[in-house]
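Title: Comparing notes on inverse folding

I've been comparing how different people in this forum approach sequence design from structure. To keep things fair, I'm posting one structure and asking everyone to reply with a full sequence. Here's the target:
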């Protein structure tokens, strides 16, 4: 059994630790609540301060897959403005414009094969989408960000090309957002 003096010391230490923990939690709660009243806010996600709106123009499609243009445009429109902290606008009213060209779309690239040597079918496939993309500041006429040959792969099960295309498009959108955020 510990000495009486050791027992008395253990209790104040636990109480002090609990008090510090309560204070830290209270401070975090107050700080989180006060953040909405601070003048600092995220605007433009790394873009110049004056850019508040963005327009995504349909990409030119140099591939024989017409749905690729629509799917890429929808995904860019859905994610770019919201993830960069901007509002969507028409081309003539937007501060920035995203435009580009779908350069290549390759499908049925084998990715994985069946482990059964008697079965010649591949189990997984992948596709590649390659685009040239740029974000233009319409106020200054300067290119904020551009990337030629931006390539993304999407893996898919056999006969499920749409899933692979969706995965590749999501990767392209993420690359464009990260590129825009890295500029300023």
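Reply #1:
Here's my take.
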């Amino acid at each position: 059994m510990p000495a009486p003096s050791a027992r008395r010391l253990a209790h104040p230490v636990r109480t002090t630790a609990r008090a510090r923990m309560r204070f830290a939690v209270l401070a975090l709660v107050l700080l989180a609540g006060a953040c909405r009243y601070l003048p600092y806010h995220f605007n433009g996600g790394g873009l110049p301060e004056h850019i508040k709106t963005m327009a995504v123009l349909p990409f030119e499609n140099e591939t024989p897959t017409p749905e690729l243009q629509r799917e890429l445009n929808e995904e860019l429109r859905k994610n770019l403005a919201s993830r960069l902290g901007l509002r969507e606008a028409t081309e003539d009213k937007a501060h920035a414009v995203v435009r580009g060209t779908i350069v290549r779309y390759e499908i049925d690239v084998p990715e994985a094969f069946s482990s059964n040597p008697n079965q010649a079918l591949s189990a997984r496939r992948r596709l590649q989408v390659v685009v040239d993309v740029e974000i233009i500041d319409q106020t200054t006429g300067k290119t904020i960000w551009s990337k030629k040959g931006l390539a993304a792969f999407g893996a898919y099960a056999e006969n499920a090309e749409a899933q692979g295309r969706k995965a590749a498009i999501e990767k392209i959108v993420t690359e464009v957002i990260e590129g825009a955020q890295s500029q300023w």
